[in-house]
Specification:
six-stranded antiparallel sheet, 13 strands, mainly beta, Jelly Rolls, 184 residues, 4% helix, 40% strand
Length: 184
Amino acid sequence: MNYFTLSETPLIDLKIITRNQKKDNRGYFSRLFCPNELKNIGWHDKVIQINESFTSRQGTIRGLHYQKQPWSEVKIVSCIKGRVFDVAVDLRRNSETYLKWYGLELSSDNAMALFIPEGFAHGFQVLSDDALMIYVHSKPYISEADAGVNPFDKKLAIQWPLTISLVSDRDNTLPFIDLNFNGI
């Protein structure tokens, strides 16, 4: 059985992974990660971390986060409970899609995930109360490499689908892209 269907996005190297669910009268089984099936889209590292985030309030925004070199990471994000509008922003200075963003709904119902390559910032807005996200990372979290871009940056003009109900102080004060921003 092929456990994943892979789809392109308008952003170079950013992919949609749809988990093919094997269903029966008990429910379903689906695979969250398999390096052998994902190496052809750019997963070449070991899994270093698997993280979980829970957000209780609809309309909450988390992000836009990334890690600076040499700790820039590949990650796969999935929503396993609830619904989110997941966003990736290309911050690779030499990319044809530099400073472009792509967003899609991830949910427990649609079994989709986003494959986010190195050089992208990531964030999401919760579309339902009680959303649970799983992140698979190729590099460890390093606090000194932690960085982000303000989710309300007018240069990005992300169209968040809901009225914003909550943003952390940290995310609300992330820097805006300016002339000194060199990308990742």
